Amino acid sequence: MKLSARIGKQRQNRRFRVRNRIRATSTRPRLSVHRSNKHIYAQIIDDQAGKTLVSASTAEKSVLAEGANGGNKAAAEIIGKLIAERATEKGLKEVVFDRGQYRYHGRIAALADAARAAGLEF
Asked: Where are the domains of the chain?
């Protein structure tokens, strides 16, 4: 097995291991986070219906100023606040945090802390 295939399989196993511990319901949807080198994405998903209820990312033109870096902690905090604001507009207050394959550290922790500070409970 090639190194890249093995690493991909390890990431997939980590993602499944984290997701299997999470119990999302229709009253408490899942806040899923994805990060890349350039951007960070967050979406609140109703797994029962299979629909995304709210989303926010640094890839949106209205989120960051022109030329701003979308792959740092400051951008993650902005996305955390934004996802919490959009969720409260939709009437969502409680969610389950899904960090995916990423450690609860750095940008992931910054996004989670900002979302909690803005009113989401998890």
From this structure: 3-117
